Amino acid sequence: MRIVLVGPPGAGKGTQAAYLAKNLAIPHISTGDLFRANISQGTPLGVEAKSYMDAGNLVPDSVTIGMAEDRMEQADAAEGFLLDGFPRNLGQAEALDAYLRDKGLKLDAVLDLEVPEDEVVKRIAGRRICRKDSSHVFHVEYNQPKAEGVCDACGGELYQREDDREDTVRKRLEVYHSETEPIIDYYKAQDLVVTIPALGKVAEVTQRAMNALGRGE
Q1: How confident is the model over 79-105, as a mean pLDDT?
Q2: How far apart are the C-alpha atoms of 80 and 89, rounded to whole Å?
C-alpha cells in the first residue's frame, strides 16, 4: 500500500506511522529522517539542504521532493510506503502525484489524523523534557514525574522546550492550517482521504486506521 499520513502537530503522526508501517510491512518514510540521512551521508541534496539551513533559510520544495523521490526508489519501497510529513503543501502533493503517475503507480489512501485544536495545544504545551537525556519525556497531565520537575529515570531537570510553548504551538498550528491543510481538500477531490479520530490510546487509534484500510483484525 502507498499511504500519506497527515494531521496537525501533536496528533501522534510519528507514533502512528511507526505502528502502521510495521503492521502493513512497508517502510515509514518521514521528512525528518530523510533530512538527517541525507545530511549525515553528505549526499548532494543533503549538502544543498544544509547550506540553506545553516543560513537560516527554508529548504526549497525541490530539495525535499528530490529526497522523497530518491527514498521511494529504494528496493524496500517497491511494494509500498507510508509517507509522514511529506507532502507538506500543495506543490509537494502535485509533485508526488506526478512522480507516481510517471511510475504507473498511485496512492491507496490519505489518512487524516483528527485531533481538536485545544487537545493539540494541551498535548504539546504540557510536555516536559529531561535536560540530561531528551529521550526521557514527561507530561504535566498525562505522564507526570514522581517528583515535580525531576526526571524519574536519571534525576535530571525537566524543562519545557521553546517549540512547546503555547504561543509557539499556536503559530505552528497556523502554519499547518495555511500550508498543509489544503492538501486534504486536494486529496478529497481524488476520493483518497480517510479521517481517523486520533483521541484515545495509541493502539486504539492504530486499530481504527487499520480497519479503515481494510486491514483490521
Answers
A1: 96
A2: 21
Integer Cα distance of 62 and 133 in angstroms? 35
Name the β-bridge partners of 5.
Answer: 84, 111
3-state secondary structure of 71: helix
Long-range contacts (CB closer than 8 Å, 24 or more residues apart) made by 163-168 = 164/124, 164/125, 164/127, 164/129, 165/125, 166/121, 166/125
Cell numbers describing residue 7: 494531521
Residue 216 has pLDDT above 70, yes or no: no
pLDDT digits (tens, 9 = 90+) for 93-105: 999 999 999 999 9
Residue 176 near residue 9 (C-beta atoms within 8 A): yes
Active site residues: 13, 88, 127, 161, 172
Q: What is the pLDDT of residues 151-209, one digit of tens each?
A: 999 999 999 999 899 999 999 999 999 999 999 999 999 999 999 999 989 999 999 99
7 burial via Cβ count (<10 Å: 0-12, 13-18, 19+): buried
The answer to whether the Cα torsion of 198, 133, 128, 176 is positive or negative is negative
Please count the other Cβ atoms lying within 10 Å of the Cβ belonging to residue 147. Answer: 10
Q: Which amino acid belongs to residue 52?
A: Y
**Per-residue model confidence (pLDDT) at position 147:** 93
| CA-closest candidate to residue 92, choices 104, 74, 110, 80 | 110
Q: Which of 12, 1, 215, 217 is nearest to 112 (CA)?
A: 12
